[in-house]
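no rush on this but wanted to send it before i forget. theres a chain ive been looking at and ive put its sequence and its fold in token form underneath. please have a look and point out which stretches look like helix strand or loop to you. thanks a lot i owe you, the record is right below:
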Amino acid sequence: MIICLDTGNTQIHGGIFQNDDLVSQFRKSSGTQFSADEAGLFIKSFLRENGLDQQRIEGVSICSVVPNLNHSLRAACVKYLDSEPFFLKPGVKTGLQIKYRNPLEVGSDRIANSIAAIARYPSRNIIVIDFGTATTFCAITKTREYLGGIIVPGVRISMEALERETAQLPVVEITEVEHVIGKSTVESIQSGLYHGQVGMVKELIHGISREAFQDEKPVIIGTGGFSRLFENSKLFDVIIPTLTLEGLYRAYQMNMK
């Protein structure tokens, strides 16, 4: 079994792979600093409660956009799982040609998404849209060139900014909204959050397709914690919430076996 940990700014999304299948998942808050003991005991407890034998853990694969958590995660793996974790970072095998001016700047979560995307859709142009703390776009060509992408504030960041920077606007439930015109302050904010993201995503998909793929239709993949919110918006060809975990598993296979 391989444990994969996608460490984001808001949550750690974890998954357990067994014989190439994702057999179990968990989410843990990453919003506050935690110790190696806290992380290790959490993972051991998760394994125990889900009937997964710790002795069958072969390794751990991690991508992280929160550097100050990396030491605790590594120490937890070594102490509690007796495993030196693999970190997806610049210099490891990915199967991609990184075309960023400075490849070191590309987030490891975006690389993991791209690895999984080209495995699922070989020889296709691809746009991956990850709805997390930030909403990120990645453009990958049919020849496995990672061209770059776009980063914009995510849905929750946008809502929190409205609440923090205004005197009278409340925090609202982030939800799918049918009507564009809100009939109350809450409905107006919800419409802006939902339809604002939908409109932005449509325009950016169009821009990327024109600029990178000469208007040849790419495969559009949605992923991330908020991707299901837009399930009925017809933005994507497919939604794969576990895309990052799949990429982490494949990266581990490429580099450690």
Observations:
- The longest strand covers residues 21-29.
- Residues 185-213 form the longest helix (29 residues).
- The helical segments are 36-49, 70-81, 108-120, 155-165, 185-213, 243-256.
